[in-house]
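PROTEIN SPECIFICATION:
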Amino acid sequence: MPEVTTEAKIFACTQSKTLAENIASHYGVPIGNVITSTYSDGEFQPSFEESVRGTRVFIIGSTNPGPNNLMEMLLMLDAAKRASARHITAVLPYFGWARQDRKDKPRVPIAAKLVAKMLETAGATRIITMDLHADQIQGFFERPVDHLFASTIFLEQIRDLNLDNLMIASPDMGGSKRAYAYSKALESEVVICYKQRAKANVISHMELIGDVTGKNVILVDDMVDTAGTLTKAADLMMERGAKSVRAICTHPILSGNAYERIENSKLEQLIVTDSIPLTQKSNKIKVVSCAKLFAEVMTRVHHNKSISSTFVM
């Protein structure tokens, strides 16, 4: 007999509660009831306050550091598994620890692979995420991975700017594939930044590959952490004759002095998604929601429909 499709249930990890509520609203179901008990030493225990037996469960939570965000996701996956949920989908708007996707020097971990295995061991039967730092991370999973692209959201934002002499830029060599995909969709030129790092989050040298004179430049990247690369690239492009520089980054980690750097830079605007909630307000930062995109994909997944139509690149 064919499997009966029951209504899905959506639950939120603490950090992503606002985004999860927006996703649930677009999906058309109320957000599930979860209570988290916390011990005096910081240990915590999430509890589903409704039955999930035999249902498809979507658990929404970005896993950016600190470690509590990942740990909460793991605990909720385990709780759903032990409560006999039929399908358990981990919805990770931002997949944290993704920068450690290979051994770039001796005696270091491959954290992205470790996190993938932890999620599967905890109970995830499917993963939905957006703009992974490295595409090959999908191969770290033995379960299906739906890798969404924020370009679905951002291309409309770029077109609405109605800029002449548009040029797409990548802040580093690793993001060149993403930049070329945007440029193809927008029929624009591309410039690449070549950077050398003294150590993590510290740039020792940056150079441009291409001419930005008289161009309205849009930098595209998967994340913005300390904003050192973005602001240095923006300042360099303005020095080289660019008309304006904006940036589009999917995941606003924005740690350290990132907000201050953005405010003091020559960046005209930074557009991000709500995959990670902002900790400060800035007149230069615009947030566009990814809730509708995730809700549409989750609906298609639940009803066993193709999601390829949601991909732009």
